[in-house]
């Protein structure tokens, strides 16, 4: 009887271990998918990593100014280039000099409001009337959740992001795929860096030894970010600090003025956003992601009246374009028909007359050449002795 109990308890223990391992592997795959999602969205890279600046010829820097500020494209001849406002929005990396230069082309991006450079305003317009989940009372979104999703949508539009945008994308993805996730936290550090902690236990955010079986996703570090368990936090955070310090120096060498690296000693500053999927409902009326409900006005450089509805503007613009395009097609068709009637028949008659005049001469020349070839061949045959083998021409096959 005791042996049966031992066997039963052993099989139960092994089954629990197997289930625990499967859950762990499933969670790791999901975390990896979230990291890859952020990397694929931010294909332009980060504006504070030297490798991405060189790879994109400085375009990842322009993306920040282009989307985070209100402005418009103007001609250099018609508008005055403001060094204070417009220099940072028109940066280009010179690979030969290995430094940033201010590229003043015929058309350049002019910043209307310099104060918005460090405090971008995300402008949202709902695609469908009466469907705005971010502001729907039934979802009860706190400001931190609303800002996270809006920031993620901005990263999706500009396809570029530093650590903050990438972490917002990771958190958004995990919130949309909550199975096995009970806690998502976006953490801000004392040295101006952001990462995500998943499934942290306890209430002490300052000490990693109390986090239990939590996982950390750093979507900015290295080439493609990396994932590691909470037990390795103290060692990994040292590597991240050194990596950030090196990036600040390398970017400074080519003219990118980043904030000075400052380590205050403590690694964790605060949690800027916490999501518990069981408690916090994802704002969607179906299984669609949040970006399916909105258009970001930030993607349009022209400064608009905040009261304008982007959906209405797009509809009117498309209608006007369609009308002009159809009118253009009709004009082209009418012109084409006129040219066919007036131009092609006369050309065809002239061409036929020309061929009729040339054709007899061509036939006469061909007959003359054929007669010449026959005569030359007959003359050669007469000179050859049929019994003299040495004089015969040999054919090679």
DSSP summary: helix tally: 9
User: What is the 3D form?
Assistant: extended
Largest beta-sheet characterization:
5 strands, antiparallel
Ends: how far apart?
97 Å
Strand content: 5-15%
Radius of gyration: 36 Å
Which structural category do the helix and sheet elements fall into?
Answer: alpha+beta
Name the helix and strand elements from N-terminus to C-terminus, one letter apiece: HHHEHEEEEHHEEEEHEEHH
Helix content: 40-55%
Which strand order do you get reading across the main beta sheet?
A: 9-8-7-6-10
Which consecutive residue ranges, at least 5 long each, have pLDDT under 50? 385-397
Mean pLDDT across residues: 78
Q: How many E strands?
A: 11
What does this structure look like?
With 397 residues, the protein is α+β, with helices and mostly antiparallel strands. Among the domains are: 29-43 and 118-306, no CATH class; 309-369. Helices cover 46% and strands 13% of the residues. The chain has nine helices and eleven strands. The protein has helices spanning 2-41, 50-55, 59-68, 83-86, 143-158, 163-176, 233-253, 310-342, 344-383; strands at residues 71-75, 91-94, 99-102, 107-111, 124-126, 184-189, 194-198, 215-218, 226-229, 268-275, 294-296. Strands 9-8-7-6-10 form a five-stranded antiparallel β-sheet. Strand 2 and strand 3 (99-102) form a beta hairpin. Helix 1 (2-41) crosses helix 6 (163-176) and helix 5 (143-158) packs across helix 6. The longest helix has 40 residues, at 2-41. It is extended. The termini are far apart. The model is unreliable at 385-397 (pLDDT under 50).
